[in-house]
Amino acid sequence: LEFRRVLFRSMLSEREEQVIKMYFGIETPEMGLEEIGQKMGLSRERVRQIKEKSLNILRSAQIGSVLKEYM
User: Fold this and answer.
1) pLDDT tens string for the chain (71 positions)?
2) Kind and range of the H or E element at 2?
3) Which residues contact 3 (CB under 8 A, 6 or more apart)?
4) How far apart are CA 61 and CA 30, in angstroms?
5) What string of DSSP letters covers 12-54?
6) Which pTM value belongs to this model?
7) CB contact at 8 A, 54 and 16
8) Of 51, 49, 44, 45, the residue nearest 22 (C-alpha)
């Protein structure tokens, strides 16, 4: 579990990590794009863009399997 935390932090910015954790309910209740946006002071569309960018980073690094546990 600690390895995954280090991996997330080394690949994603703090904001990207927060969005992914909130969206998938990792260490926090699962939230929708609108809820995340309100909490972070961002638009729903910006949260969606950050989420997609972050998932692409994780997919390209073959880390997507980590997230499958939370889906």
Assistant:
1) 565 666 667 789 999 999 999 999 988 999 999 999 999 999 999 999 999 999 998 888 765 555 565 55
2) helix 2-11
3) none
4) 24
5) S-HHHHHHHHHHHTSSS----HHHHHHHHT--HHHHHHHHHHH
6) 0.77
7) yes
8) 51
Question: Residue 5 is encoded by which pair of tokens?
Answer: 């935390």
CA 64 – CA 56 distance, rounded (Å): 9
Burial 34-44 (b: 16+ CB within 10 A, else e): eebbeeeebee
Yes or no: say if 40 and 50 are a contact pair by the CB < 8 Å rule: no
Contact 18, 8 (CB under 8 A): no
Give the amino acid at 62.
Answer: Q
* Residue with tokens 């910015």, as numbered in its chain: 13
User: Which burial class, exposed, middle or buried, applies to 26 when counting CB atoms under 10 A from its CB (0-12, 13-18, 19+)?
Assistant: middle
Residues in the chain: 71
